[in-house]
Design brief:
- The protein is of the alpha+beta class and 135 residues long.
- It has one domain.
- The protein is built from two helices and eight strands, in the order ββαβαβββββ.
- The strands form two sheets. The chain has a six-stranded antiparallel β-sheet with strand order 3-7-6-5-4-8. A two-stranded antiparallel sheet has the order 1-2.
- It is elongated, with a radius of gyration of 24 Å.
- The model has no long low-confidence stretch (mean pLDDT 87).
- The structure holds zinc ion.
């Protein structure tokens, strides 16, 4: 015999009748719940993508005029340091922070060197080693 519990629909809050593992009153509410959740996930992805795109654009524009730039200037231009697409460690132990094909490498606490990787950013060169975060 199945237990019948009084539960409320996650979407609309009305009482759910039926099996104890039911979470929604009907198919409409179940679909609505999953659509909303998917929408929120899309929004998170869109927001991060927008930041990465902006970072890339900033580096691209700066790379045309300069080879090095002050960290403060990068920040003033709107660069978000927490966001990058790839980290590479050079054999000398320096870290390169990439946003797609553009990146920077800290020279000291105040300045960074702007980098542009070869066309195929996926192929790591011999002098760098990809950092694997899965380990
Ligand atoms: Zn409902």
């Amino acid at each position: 015999m199945e237990t019948i519990l009084k539960k409320n629909c996650i979407t609309c809050g009305s009482q759910v009748k039926g099996r104890s593992d039911k979470k929604f009153c009907d198919d409409y509410c179940r679909n609505e719940f999953h659509n909303r959740r998917a929408g929120r996930q899309d929004e998170v992805v869109r927001n991060v993508n927008a930041i990465l795109k902006q970072n890339r654009k900033i580096l691209e524009e700066l790379a045309e005029a300069k080879k090095t730039i002050r960290v403060a200037e990068l920040a003033m231009a709107g660069y978000r340091f927490g966001y990058c697409t790839e980290l590479k460690r050079t054999v000398r132990g320096a870290t390169h922070f990439y946003c797609y094909e553009y990146g920077y490498s800290p020279l000291n606490s105040e300045k960074v060197k702007i980098l542009k990787s070869a066309k195929n950013a996926e192929k790591s060169s011999k002098s760098t080693q990809k950092i694997d975060f899965r380990a």
